[in-house]
From TrEMBL:
Residues 6-423 form the FAD-dependent oxidoreductase 2 FAD-binding domain. The keyword Oxidoreductase applies. This is Anaerobic glycerol-3-phosphate dehydrogenase subunit B. One of its GO terms (cellular component) is glycerol-3-phosphate dehydrogenase (FAD) complex. SUPFAM superfamilies: FAD/NAD(P)-binding domain. Keywords: Flavoprotein, FMN, Oxidoreductase. The lineage of its organism: Archaea, Methanobacteriati, Methanobacteriota, Stenosarchaea group, Halobacteria. It holds the Pfam family FAD_binding_2. GO terms for molecular function: glycerol-3-phosphate dehydrogenase (quinone) activity. It comes from Natrarchaeobaculum aegyptiacum. InterPro entries: FAD-dep_OxRdtase_2_FAD-bd, FAD-oxidoreductase_2, FAD/NAD-bd_sf, G3P_DH_GlpB_su. It comes from the Archaea.
Length: 441
């Protein structure tokens, strides 16, 4: 007996979660099945829409208004497929889900957020914990790193920011984090210590970890009006941690986005999965889709001919083959990094539904020798129509009841463009909305 749903989303990252939330608004039965945990915990937590042009021109200067630039994107880019209005609608949808946890909704202009490497990243939405650290803010800044977190070299990051020409004076210092002496501590250990305000020894007496951290930093301040820390300032009670530090130091406090594993990414995952639970979306992880059955029926809008429909999929649940049947499906399994697109020495494939992935026959044409050049493989993925339905090599529909979203799509280089989260949001929103509309029509 198959498990029945109206919309089944394969993949639980940003695109998959957004698709499920968008579909659930229409009072249909929605389920997510995912082979692995969400990749959100590896992400920065920033929502980038379009930071740089896709042709590589002018890469020294970030795009100011991504919506102005969307109109000039090439045919086949995911934003060109869905349109600028859908990108805007998806961001507004995210704003409603995120509430006051994220900032940036007041403007179409990209914000410039300093990162742990001392670079400045153009992004459309950013955690509230990051807001006081924007590079457009002229206030003098102290960056604080810890000797037990070697990934964030605060003096080096400060030097890079100065070299980038930020409009403020910036210093970096490295201190000892009170209560942690080992450099193999996970980021969650720092966050939980501050969340619970655990007692630590400082100056020969026991005090709360927040006050102890403030005391360490206070000794290093030299008139700066804001202080940036690596993104470890609490998890469940991050706002309270930041508020207490600000009160003790009498400065604004902000977090600098870090590399994986990312606490802001974990917070975003918690936010989205809490929203999924509230919306009644069923989520099952650790269950890869290993097979599917198709059935005839459904018109191919391009040719007028019948096209296949996905009848049901089969997931592997602890070695048992369990069928799942839905009216509509969304493929949101990620790209080459997320194993939604796979490759070997001979070919590039989409492993779940065997959708067509266009690529040169000669694998030496998959890349260029310049490691920083425009790499063809970065754009490999599933080609889709304007309804986000995957297309065969000849241009017909793969399946009439399947849509694709996120980095499984072809036609863009999310790393070079700084567009990954925005594409996942926009295409996930459109895919979920249209899948639900098919169910209810």
């Amino acid at each position: 007996m198959a498990i029945e749903d109206d919309v089944l989303v394969v993949g639980g990252g940003l695109a998959g979660a957004t698709a499920a939330l968008a579909a659930a608004r229409e009072d249909v039965r929605v389920r997510i099945v995912s082979a692995t945990q969400s990749t959100l915990r590896q992400a920065s937590g920033l929502i980038d829409v379009l930071g740089y042009p896709p042709d590589g021109a002018g890469t020294e200067d970030p795009i100011v208004d991504p919506f102005d630039a969307i109109a000039d994107l090439p045919t086949g880019h995911p934003y060109e497929r869905v349109g600028a209005d859908a990108v805007r609608d998806a961001l507004e949808f995210f704003d409603r889900v995120a509430g006051d946890a994220y900032a940036g909704s007041h403007t179409d202009v990209n914000a410039l957020v300093p990162t742990y490497a001392g670079r400045v990243k153009p992004t459309a939405r950013y955690p509230a914990a990051t807001a006081a650290g924007l590079a457009s803010d002229p206030r003098d800044t102290l960056l604080v790193g810890f000797d037990t977190i070697p990934d964030f070299d605060a003096p080096l990051a400060a030097g890079h920011l100065e070299a980038a020409g930020v409009p403020f004076a910036v210093r970096g210092v490295t201190v000892s984090f009170p209560g942690i002496e080992r450099d193999d501590a996970k980021v969650t250990r720092y966050a939980h210590l501050l969340d619970r305000n655990e007692p630590v020894w400082r100056g020969g007496s026991e005090t709360g970890s927040r006050a102890a951290l403030a005391s360490v930093v206070e000794d290093r301040l030299a008139g700066e009006s804001r202080v940036g820390f690596p993104a470890i300032l609490g998890d469940d009670h991050a706002t309270a941690v930041r508020t207490d530090l600000e009160a003790a130091l009498d400065v604004d406090v902000f977090e600098v986005p870090m590399g994986p594993p990312s606490l802001p990414g974990l917070r975003l995952e918690d936010l989205l999965y809490g929203a999924l639970e509230d919306a009644g979306v069923r989520v099952t992880t650790g269950v890869p889709v290993v097979d599917y059955e198709s059935a005839r029926g459904g018109a191919d809008d391009r040719t007028g001919a019948d096209s296949d429909r996905i009848g049901h999929v089969v997931v592997d649940r602890n070695g048992a083959a369990v069928p799942h049947r839905a009216d509509q499906y969304v493929l949101a399994t990620g790209g080459l990094v997320g194993t939604g697109i796979e490759s070997d020495r001979e070919q590039v494939t989409e492993p779940v539904f065997d959708c067509h992935v266009a690529h040169p026959d000669d694998r030496y044409d998959w890349f260029v020798d310049d490691v920083f050049g425009d790499q063809p493989y970065a754009r490999f993925g599933v080609d889709v129509d304007r309804d986000l339905r995957p297309l065969e090599a000849g241009g017909g529909l793969e399946f009439s009841n399947l849509r694709a979203a996120g980095s499984v799509l072809s036609g863009y280089d999310f790393a070079a463009e700084k567009s990954g989260s925005g594409v996942s949001l926009a295409t996930g929103y459109v895919a979920g909305t249209r899948a639900a509309a098919e169910v209810t029509s």
